[in-house]
Amino acid sequence: MKKILCYGNSNTWGCSPSDGSRFGEDVRWPMIMASSLGAEFSVIEDAKCGRTVLDLNSDPELNGIAWIGSNIESFGPLFAAVICLGINDIFDSGEIPLPRIIAGLEKITGIIKESHKKREEPLPGIIMLTPVMPRIEPEEMNFYQLQMNKCAALIAEYTILARETGLLCLDISGTIKASDKDGSHLERKSHIKLGITVAEFIKAELL
Description:
Elements: E1 2-8, H1 10-13, H2 29-37, E2 41-47, H3 64-75, E3 80-84, H4 87-92, H5 98-118, E4 125-129, H6 141-165, E5 168-170, H7 188-206
Parallel strand pairs: 1-2, 1-3, 3-4, 4-5
């Protein structure tokens, strides 16, 4: 069985933009991805609403670096890891420099690599999945301009990080859109589209 870790925040968890409830397994993109890949694949959904890359919360599960460091060994050998984090760091604290967030993402990928090296296991394919760009109403743009600029820069930095560290990057910013209901989360159709998109990317790049 090939295991794929999906490590992210609320959009990986499956938060509904309508009421904040969790979509079922027939909707969430990691499960759609696994289904599209076939029976030889299983998915580990490790996602939390509000998760950041850096230590910005009192809840340890929300600290992306610390949590992966504490739990990577329990996942066992991975075939692949799909990481989608960073957007909450920007909106939770606009003061954090973008290079610090990128360095944190690199640390997360390094923890995954090191755990496999230590056990003398093949390195998994690590996919940096760019965050979904938030929808901001025109009348709010002045208030959120800094954050939106950082979001756009974060997506560009994902590509650079992947290229410089031997990772893969899947840029979904132009094809997967946030709901206009809350401006940040994915609708059912977008989850399904994203799951199929990630599965096709894995088939093309890792199989």
